[in-house]
Amino acid sequence: MASRHRALADAERRGIWVLRGLSGLALALAVLSLTVAAGGVRPALAYGAIGLVLAGPLVRLAVPARRWVRPPDRRFLVLAGVVAVVLPVVAAVVTAGG
Amino acid sequence: MPELAVVAVAAGAGVAAAAGTAMGAGGAVLLVPALLIAGVDQTAAAAAGLLTVAAGCTAAGPRQIRQQLVNHRLAVTLEVMASTGAILGAVVAGFLPAVVFAYLLAAVLLFTAATTFLRGGMRNLPEPSLGHDALGEHAGGLGGAYLLTDAVVPYRAARVRLGLALSAVAGTVAGLTGTSGGFLKTPIMSEIMHVPVKVAAATTTLASGLTAVAALAVYLPRGALAPTWGAAAVGGALLGGQLGAWLQQRLPPVVARRSFAALLLVIALGLLARS
């Protein structure tokens, strides 16, 4: 039990540092894009910042995966996770198309 | 683009992300109307709003994970229904006159603001027998425990079926408005399902972030948002999201609930004024 708690804490700690890294790097790229960058570098930095930010919520969804290790929870994680990400894409496609 | 406009977008995104993260309102519902009033076209405003939500979610993540405030299982469960509703909303958007929709939405917001503001006390009380090892979401159910000052407060989602049905309605509204619908998801969790408002707000921040990422995957490749606007929104929202998570940790539940009610009131009045 103690090792399980330790594994969960380690996973959360790693997730926190990944998110901090994403946020810090995205902020740096955004600031560089708006201040010192010029020409074609400017949009490249901006899109880099946007891409890093978009990865954040997906990392947040993955962080507690270690917590859901029991079979019913694992099945739930896979099904609901896929549906929760795929369905909004369908909604956005319908919205953008309409 | 004039530098003043970039600063205004960054500042607007910062304020929207701070308020949205602290109170679980997403943030797009605050930024999008402001950009529309400023003359930004609807698609770019929606993309900037969704980007603000995703950035706020990313920035608030470390603090919310460390505090074990987020119930991921609850977020994903409700998001399935909300996303289904969002598809329905997108389909019926063309059939509902904008003014009728605005009045309906304003009525829902005013009712939610009133019930949220008038409710006194706390539903979920601290349990002295629980230690810090009970914190976080509990596997196998839609419950958990969170830390309120030094006390551990257990909770369990109630009226799950009603919450799921209303999440579908919230998703429909989100599909109609092009927002993440967080301003409805948080009151559904806290007022209908009796989830503590801090947990509800943090859980909504994650759910709204996922919705925003999926929607942006469609908007951005179509060139809906100029990169300079995107960088400004990302920069402002990352700072605002951290501020919002910091505020969320410090606000007492009653103050958080009443602040959220005030925010809903402002949004409703803004909607009525626009329509």
For the biggest sheet of chain A, the summary is: none
N-C termini distance of chain B: 29 Å
Radius of gyration of chain B: 18 Å
The string of secondary-structure elements of chain B, in order, is HHHHHEEEHHHHH
Biggest sheet strand line-up of chain B: 1-2-3
Note the beta-strand portion of chain B: 5-15%
Instruction: Give the proportion of residues in helices of chain A.
Output: over 70%
Poorly predicted parts of chain B: none
Number of helices of chain A: 3
- The total of beta strands of chain B comes to 3
**Overall morphology of chain A:** flat
Summarize the largest interface: chains and residue counts.
A-B, 59 and 61 residues
Terminal-residue CA separation of chain A? 52 Å
**How many structural domains can be distinguished in the coordinates of chain B?**
1
Share of helix among residues of chain B?
over 70%
Protein topology:
The complex is a heterodimer of chains A (98) and B (275).
Chain A: H1 2-34, H2 41-62, H3 71-97
Chain B: H1 3-23, H2 28-37, H3 42-66, H4 72-92, H5 98-118, E1 136-137, E2 143-148, E3 151-156, H6 160-177, H7 182-192, H8 197-219, H9 227-250, H10 253-274
Antiparallel strand pairs in B: 1-2, 2-3
